[in-house]
Amino acid sequence: MDSYPELYNLAVNRYSCRSYSSAPVPADTLTAVLDVVRLAPSACNRQPWLIIIADGDDERRAVIDSYPREWIKTAPEYIIACGLHDRAWHRQADGKDHTDVDVSIAVEHLCLAATSLGLGTCWVCNFDPELIRKTFRLPDEVEPVAIIPIGYPADPAAVPAKNRKEMSDIIRRGKF
After folding, report:
1. Rounded to 10 degrees, what is the CA torsion of 50, 58, 17, 158?
2. 149/138 Cα distance (integer angstroms)
3. Are 76 and 7 in contact (CB under 8 A)?
4. Measured between alpha carbons, how far is residue 4 from residues 7, 9, 62, 137, 163 in Å?
C-alpha cells in the first residue's frame, strides 16, 4: 500500500502480544503513547474515557487477579481504559450510547502508537470488572472497559501471521 505505508505497516505489525520482556517502559515513552490517546477522535469530541495506569503493587496484583492467565504477568505495565457513560454522546434517534465506540477508538490509537515505538499491547476484555472497580475505587459512573498490558515484546521479531477475512467478505457497496 504505497499511498500510506506507515499506517499500513503499523496495522500489519500490531498484534496481541502475550509475552513481554522484563524491560520497563520509559516514562517518556509511555507519555508519548498516552498523548496519542488524548488526540483520538470521539463523538462530538466528548472523549468519554479515563485512562488509569496500574502502577502500585496492589493495583498490579488486582489486574493480574482479574484476568488469571500466566502470560499477563510478563507485562511490565498495565493500562485500564474506562468509559464515562454520562459524558458520552448519545444518538438522538434511538439513544445509542457511544461510550464503548469512543473508548475503542482511543484504545486502538494507544495500540498503534505503542506499536510505532516498538512496544507490544493486547486488548483484554475478559476480566473481572468488579475487582478492578473495587481496587481502584472507581465511582459508579466510571466503567472499566479494557485492560491493556503494554511493554516490549519478549521476541520483537515474532509478529504472528494475521488470519483476516477477505475484503469481499466484509465490504459491501449499496443495498444488502
Report:
1. 140
2. 19
3. no
4. 6, 9, 40, 43, 22
Mean pLDDT, the chain, rounded, equals 95
DSSP 121: E
Beta bridge partners of 20: 153
Closest CA to 40 of 109, 112, 98: 109
In the structure grid, which three cell numbers stand for residue 81, read together?
Answer: 481504559
With CA atoms as reference, report the closest residue to 154 among 124, 122, 120. 120
Over the stretch 81-112, which tens digit does the pLDDT of each residue have?
999 999 999 999 999 999 999 999 999 999 99
Q: Give per-residue pLDDT as tens, 8-44.
A: 999 999 999 999 999 999 999 999 999 999 999 999 9
List all residues 6 or more positions away from 120 whose beta carbon is below 8 Å from its beta carbon. Answer: 15, 17, 20, 114, 150, 151, 152, 153
Q: Which helix (H) or strand (E) holds 34?
A: helix 27-39
